[in-house]
Amino acid sequence: MEPHTCASEQKREQIYQAAVVEFQDKGFSEASMDRISARAGASKRTVYKYFESKEKLFQELLRRHWGRFAASLDVTYDKNRDIRDQLVALGRAEGALLTNPDVMAMTRLVMSEVLRSPELVGENQEKTDFKAAFERMLRDADADGVLVIEDPKVAAEEFISLIKGKAFWPVVFGAAVVSAEEMEQIVEGSVEMIMRRYGV
């Protein structure tokens, strides 16, 4: 990477991190590009060079935040391993972020702003498919004959809903972040229900 490019990326990241602090402190509607530039130690002209609006900055926050969830689910089906153990591992991968207080605090911020102003998501923003890893594993397990699933997409939605219904949505609306022990029980119970519904 050229020195100029490296410096440019560092400046862009510096502005982004300043925006994150501003959004956490003030929320989207009260956030100020003036304060973001001050936090970043950059001129407003420089801030607008990298991010043309406050909306674009928030969309970058969305992209990175939800991308973190998607990246955590890098689990693929292994035909030589017990399917129940694999489903537990997939559930734990999701649960690792849902039990992280910093991640869930950011999730509260993101969800409150998106629910208030859906247009913040952006029409052309790449949508993160949170179901992909679940659907892929369930489809592969069905193809291997260790589960019997007519519609892996529906089964993936069911699996995710079992976890998020207890550990995501309640927290978004003000409940305490679940503990690691509680998450383990949620994951085990969710996998048990999936196995009873689709197990051979």
TrEMBL record:
<protein>
    <submittedName>
        <fullName>TetR/AcrR family transcriptional regulator</fullName>
    </submittedName>
</protein>
<dbReference type="InterPro" id="IPR036271">
    <property type="entry name" value="Tet_transcr_reg_TetR-rel_C_sf"/>
</dbReference>
<dbReference type="Pfam" id="PF00440">
    <property type="entry name" value="TetR_N"/>
</dbReference>
<feature type="domain" description="HTH tetR-type">
    <location>
        <begin position="9"/>
        <end position="69"/>
    </location>
</feature>
<dbReference type="Pfam" id="PF14246">
    <property type="entry name" value="TetR_C_7"/>
</dbReference>
<feature type="DNA-binding region" description="H-T-H motif">
    <location>
        <begin position="32"/>
        <end position="51"/>
    </location>
</feature>
<dbReference type="InterPro" id="IPR050109">
    <property type="entry name" value="HTH-type_TetR-like_transc_reg"/>
</dbReference>
<dbReference type="InterPro" id="IPR023772">
    <property type="entry name" value="DNA-bd_HTH_TetR-type_CS"/>
</dbReference>
<keyword id="KW-0238">DNA-binding</keyword>
<dbReference type="InterPro" id="IPR001647">
    <property type="entry name" value="HTH_TetR"/>
</dbReference>
<dbReference type="InterPro" id="IPR009057">
    <property type="entry name" value="Homeodomain-like_sf"/>
</dbReference>
<dbReference type="InterPro" id="IPR039536">
    <property type="entry name" value="TetR_C_Proteobacteria"/>
</dbReference>
